[in-house]
Amino acid sequence: MRGAKTKPVRYALRHARAAETRAAILRVAADNFATAGLAGGRMEAIARAAGVNKALLHYYFESKAGLYSAVLEEHMKEFSRRAQEVLSAPGPARSTVLRFVSLHFDFISARPYYPFLFQHVMMAGGRPLRRLMRKYLLPVGAALIRIVAEGIRRGEFRRVDPGQMAASLVGVTVFYFSSAPITRVLRGINPFDATHLRQRKEHVLEFVRFGLFRNPQETI
Fold it and tell me: Which domain holds residue 211?
């Protein structure tokens, strides 16, 4: 009886260790791929940095392309979950849009390598990108467009093209992070410094207010 009782415990421990190992591999791979891209990433280096055997990477992810997709999907899945929570919450469209933009900014600022991972997969295109887009980004985009359209109907927003505005709401955040290497050279600053992040976020939210809101100064 004692052995039967301990089987679920042993299974749970093995499962927890496997989850921890997989998470460690994904963290290391994110740094490696952000620097080198898919073509330049090396499974040997990732395995060594994660403290595992290279065969374990193939066991979990099958190939380097599979590992790359898993890294990107991990971030997309989490952002999609948080974004959908914000966009589906009740309340004025104005506050929903500002919460979404704030979430998007904070999410990427905590993951400085994410824009570079996404850029690499966008340049590569193909089936992995289409799958991730359909599964995670398209639902978020559709929800954001719906919120903008609702705000226009309610008189909260100026009369704009909801699709174009949704693209602008995303782009105003993404470009800051994807252009970070250029900013370092042209402005001589670290875009990820806490002070610059705070200043940029304040500017982005103000930009959204004056670019979209019918009454930008109105208290929300």
Answer: 64-220
